[in-house]
Amino acid sequence: MMDKISNIILKFSRVDRRWIFLIIGLSVLIPLYLPLGLPIRPTDTTQRVYDAFESLEPNSKVLLSCEYGPSTKPEIHPMVIALLHQLFRKDHKVYVSCLWPDGQFMADEALKEVAHLYNKKYGIDYVILGYRPGNEAVIKGMVRDLRAIFSTDVKGTKVEEIPMMEDVYKFEDFNFLFSASAGFPGSIEWMQYATDNTNVKMSTGTTSIMVNDIMPFVVSDQIQGILAGMPGAAEYEKLVGKKGIGTSGMDAQSIAHLVIILFIIFGNIGYFIERNREKKY
Questions:
Q1: Which CATH superfamily is domain 44-242 in?
Q2: Which residues contact 50 (CB under 8 A, 6 or more apart)?
Q3: How far is the C-alpha of 110 from the C-alpha of 121, rounded, in Å?
Q4: Are 207 and 69 contacting, i.e. CB atoms less than 8 angstroms apart?
Q5: Which of 93, 196, 206, 251 lies 20 to 30 Å (CA to CA) from residue 24?
Q6: Count of H-run helices and E-run strands, the chain
Q7: Phi-psi bin for 108: left (phi > 0), alpha (psi -120 to 50), beta?
């Protein structure tokens, strides 16, 4: 009996690497198209972001800053979409600024996906102010005089002609800031040059690799929670009640990791079985 089990394990440990690549590929693709619904439990830092927005009064002015591009879209874009569901459901006004040139395209894509579901109209319920070069200088300028930085929106319309810009002249006219950030300039710069110097609170969503840099500011309450990479996006989708690519992405990641671990286990067991057999002979 033991010999039969050993032979089966040896067959698994010697499987052609091309089959391994195929199996891992399928373990990623299948959950993406057919989500398994693996259990997701929101962490405290994700819950803080959700609670911060839930505590805002209806029709609050929320600045959404998009500092990410196609390379980090899988991690950050799902959290932006989930956040927009929450903001529009609560009838908040959404103002989008971008410190990265790619950010305005990411924001436009997310808004096109979500806004029509809540019958939200451009210029009345949301606006894309767009990208301006200058990194920290843009943030400092918005704190002093937002209209000096953004005299027009992404469509070229003067801000004076946009209904929802009527009472917005500087950064402090916003009620809250969310920075969807993949690096510099991003969340830390917003905190240093805007929220730390005003009464406006902020939360952030970042790539997983940035979490350790941001976490000290979350602990000190300078930043109200953090969505940490794809796990944070999946957790936020659960809180908002809108499953998306974050949830299916975590399913795919979990299954792929499980398959890789199983191959490692069978490979190591097969190695020791083969070595013991060689010693006997």
A1: MTH777-like (3.40.50.10160)
A2: 42, 86, 225, 236, 239, 240
A3: 14
A4: no
A5: 206
A6: 10, 6
A7: alpha
Structure tokens at 97: 């600024």
The pTM is what? Answer: 0.84
- Within 10 angstroms of residue 43's Cβ, the number of other Cβ atoms is 14
Q: Are 99 and 193 in contact (CB under 8 A)?
A: no
DSSP result, 225-252: -EEEHHHHHHHHHHHHT---HHHHHHHH
Angle at 203 between CA 157 and CA 113, to 5 degrees: 50
Domains of the chain, residue spans: 2-37+250-280, 44-242
Please state the φ and ψ torsions of residue 270, each to the nearest 5 degrees: -60, -40
Nearby residues of 62 by Cβ (< 8 Å), 6 or more positions away = 53, 56, 87, 92, 93, 94, 95, 174, 175, 176, 177, 178
Residue that wins the pLDDT comparison between 50 and 27: 50
**Count of CB atoms situated within 10 Å of the CB of 58:** 7
Which amino acid appears at position 272 of this protein? F
- The alpha carbon of 18 is separated from its chain's Cα centroid by a whole number of angstroms, namely 33
User: Can you tell me the distance from the alpha carbon of 281 to that of 188, in angstroms, rounded to the nearest whole number?
Assistant: 64
- 38: phi then psi, degrees, rounded to nearest 5: -60, 145
The token pair at 110 is 């997310």
Position 278 pLDDT exceeds 70: no
Burial (CB < 10 A; 0-12, 13-18, 19+), residue 151, is exposed
Whether the upstream peptide bond of residue 74 has omega within 30° of 0, thus cis, is: no
* Residue-wise pLDDT tens digits, 158-205: 999 999 999 999 999 999 999 999 989 999 999 999 999 899 999 999
Residue 124 has which token pair? 């009345």
Instruction: Give the whole-angstrom CA distance, residue 117 versus residue 173.
Output: 27
